[in-house]
Every structure is written in C-alpha cells, then in structure tokens.
Design goal:
With 151 residues, the chain is an all-alpha fold. The protein has seven helices and no strands.
Length: 151
C-alpha cells in the first residue's frame, strides 16, 4: 500500500493532522458516523469491520513511517473504538453526549487491561486499547440504560 494512502487512512482523512485534540475530533467524526448509521445494524457492522480492519492494516505502517510508537496523528483507532462504544445504543442527545465523554475518558485513562493492550507492538497496540475503551463504554452504557429503564 502506498505511503500516501496509509497516511490518509491512518489519519482518518487528515483529521489526525489537526494541531489540537486530533483524537477527540476523530472520536466526534466516528460518533457522527454512528448517528448516520443508527437504525441500520447490518450496515453499521459492515462499516465497523471495514474501519477496524483498515485500522489494523495501516496503523502499524504509519507508526513505521513516522518513526514513533502510537503517533497522535493515527486516529483511525478512535473512530473504530467509538463505533463500538455507540453500537446498539439509543442515540438521544443525552446518551450521545454521555457515551462520547465516557469513551474519551476510558480512552485517555486506559483502565486495566486497556493499558496492557497498548503495549502490544504495531497495529495491535494502537487499535486494541481503543477497542477496549469502546467495549467498556458500550457495556457501561447498556447497564446504565437498562438500570434506568430506558432500554
């Protein structure tokens, strides 16, 4: 794969090149994608699989191109993780905001065992911790929404 294509995909269409909060911006882009796909479970799963597989294919290559472990410009992992976080949630404004900020918190604080996954080499280390953050977010939201009687 050509290096320009790797850069385009790993930065999720250059969002990762923003000078301020590229991870948060990519998470927002992924959350808006989740809203666009809401109610289309099959399409949602297909898009999630394509983005996740692409992330595994390009993030390790981008790491080598940049010469840095888990460079901040690689944000396709945030998009994949936030899609997992929002999967099958009722996307009311309150749920959207809560899930978004919960995902960002889980992603930034690397709650165990996400901190262990981050140590994996290459694409696995880049992608895995965000997927764990997405899983933590989704499970937390599913439990909270059921407990509150919302779903």
């Amino acid at each position: 794969m050509r290096s320009e294509l790797v850069k385009l995909l790993a930065t999720f269409f250059r969002i990762g090149n923003f000078p301020v909060a590229p991870g948060s911006l990519a998470s927002l882009a992924g959350a808006l994608l989740a809203v666009a796909l809401h109610g289309h479970a099959f399409g949602y799963v297909v898009v999630f699989i394509v983005i996740t597989a692409t992330g595994f294919a390009v993030s390790g290559r981008m790491e080598r191109l940049v010469g840095q472990k888990d460079p901040s410009c690689v944000v396709i992992d945030e998009v994949s993780g936030v899609l997992l976080a929002f999967f099958l949630l009722p996307l009311t404004p309150a749920v959207f905001l809560t899930a978004f900020f919960l995902f960002r918190a889980f992603d930034m604080f690397k709650v165990y065992p996400a901190d262990r996954f981050e140590e994996f080499p290459g694409s696995s280390g880049i992608m895995a911790d965000d997927l764990v953050a997405g899983l933590y977010t989704n499970l937390t939201m599913q439990i909270a929404l059921r407990w509150a009687g919302i779903i």
